[in-house]
Amino acid sequence: MKNLFIILLLISFFSCKKETLKSAVVLKKEIPMLLIQPEGKPTNIDSTLLLSFNNKVLSNFYKATNYRTVWQSEEKRKIILEELSRSDEEGLQPEDYNLKSLFDFEKKARSLDSLGLAKYDILLTSSLQKYIAHLTNGTVNPRKLYKNWDLKENYIDLNTTVVQLLNSDSLTYEIEQLKPNHIVYKRLKKALQLLNNFPKDNFKSIKFTKIITPKDTTASIIDIKKRLIYWKDMQPNDSLTPIYDQEMVTALKRFQSRHGLAADAKIGAGTIASLNFSKTQRTQQILANLERWKWFPKQMGNEYIIINIPDYKLLLVKNKDTLRTHRVIVGRTKRKTPILSSTLTQVVFNPTWTVPPTILREDVIPAILRSREYLTQSNIKVYDATGRFVSPYEWQLSQANTYRYVQSPGTFNSLGMVKLIFPNRFSVYLHDTNHRDYFEKIDRSLSSGCVRVENPLELTEYLLHDPVSWNLEKITETLQKERTKFVKIKKEVAIHLLYWTAWSENNNLIFRDDIYNLDANLYNKLRN
């Protein structure tokens, strides 16, 4: 009996194991669609008509209809055609969706024979599926473009979505829900609309020779005034003078502010560069940003931090309301801050800083070679592979890459007094800095990839959400001890490091410097 029990137990174990594996395999398979019951009087479709599309998703859809047409409703067809015609408002190209052929079919819809109706139905479904895919994930795959982007693809089941649209009583509303719903995307669409209303421009490039200040008189003043008038920062005058007058000062400050420049009325190289952007270039910039926003997460979370890298700004948003704003410092061009989404998990007070490989190779080792005192001055301790402390005068270049370099906590630590951690494959995080004066700079692409945050203690107090144990007074007491302390962030707060260089505010066009030179390249990928 004992042996029999053991045998039965083994059979039961392996049966469960086999069943678990079987279930795992089933989950990976494409879930078959339920049979779709077309409305009205459908037309039969010859399945060979689908072969030329070479599209499995499309074939599966019509297999589920038992190879019958589904777009019997003239109202729904026209809503889809109108939506595809206006796809340029989303930064897409209407010609990608077979519009000419679709409209030709629609004009003859009532007189089409069975073959014509079948062809029209298939082409309409195919075009709609393509449009849905472009709305939800864009037309270019960022994972193939960028090494330092880590955004999950926005999952969409095309056939299930088409069925939902078919069954909807409000097709227009349902299509609208497929579009990115973030306020920035909507402001980008508004920016495109505003820009399209500007007349054609044929300005010649303004050359920068020296900084122009108020009351100066130079030949380029008139050209600059014409640009300010064109972009509606300055009212048109009957006569333009070459004098940098007070009216121009006000207009230029407005222009500088819209472009993220120092609104100091000084016309330097940065201001001239922004003035030289044409309407065509700005349109291309907006189109690139509209594409980029289709890659970003559709759901940011109920409470999240969002950082716009080119704007050097952090926003904390809860239930669509911005609660906090902080200036930030981001990675410079050679050490870009990655684009990613994650969740904040931990606060580190009085963090140590282990020097990462790139900074070690490019900054620290060269500094040590110039002077061994660099290690003492920077409060960096060196440890060998066994964990033994290596004094500055024992340090050897031949072993330099095998050592671990750790900067002790304290006021002069590169990470400052606090670090905010979120899981990511780039090992980046938010942190304080020992160079707080850098936040006064306009161009703040200065870091080695991580994001430095202004006034991080106030942000940390909010995130820890414990007014008794972790108010500012308690945080200050912890920092004064200069001992490293880890504290878990209990509330769920997502974090998104993103990149956009254009939008609109109160019917004004807003632009930022494309610090990583991504816009023009992306536009070329979209249109070529």
UniProtKB/TrEMBL annotation:
Domain (L,D-TPase catalytic) ranges: 303-471
Pfam families: PG_binding_1, Scaffold, YkuD
Matches recorded under InterPro entries: LD-transpeptidase_YkuD-like (IPR052905), LD_TPept_cat_dom (IPR005490), LD_TPept_scaffold_dom (IPR045380), Peptidoglycan-bd-like (IPR002477), PGBD-like_sf (IPR036365), PGBDSf (IPR036366), Transpep_catalytic_dom (IPR038063)
Keywords linked to the UniProt accession: Cell shape, Cell wall biogenesis/degradation, Peptidoglycan synthesis, Transferase
A GO MF term: carboxypeptidase activity
Active site (record annotation): H431 (proton donor/acceptor), C450 (nucleophile)
Regions that span the bilayer: none
Entry annotated with the keyword Nuclease: no
GO annotation, biological process: cell wall organization; peptidoglycan biosynthetic process; regulation of cell shape
Keyword Transferase found: yes
UniProt xrefs under Gene3D superfamilies: L,D-transpeptidase catalytic domain-like (2.40.440.10), PGBD-like superfamily/PGBD (1.10.101.10)
UniProt pathway annotation: Cell wall biogenesis; peptidoglycan biosynthesis
UniProt superkingdom: Bacteria
Family as reported in the entry's similarity comment: Belongs to the YkuD family.
Protein name: Murein L,D-transpeptidase YcbB/YkuD
Native organism: Flavobacterium omnivorum
